[in-house]
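Explain the record.
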Amino acid sequence: MQVGDCYARHMASKNPYLEYANGGLSQILGWVVTLVFVGCLLGLAFAAFLILT
């Protein structure tokens, strides 16, 4: 992970547009992962609620 970040920064320092695009992508990916995670938790809670009631 850290090696990848260093490499990405090294490449981005040569190309500011790449840095911007990479930052946007990682932000979007972070949101997607968070939403999926929250969705899974809500789904599990709902399933448990249905099973227990």
Observations:
- The chain has one domain: 2-52.
- Residues 2-52 form one domain.
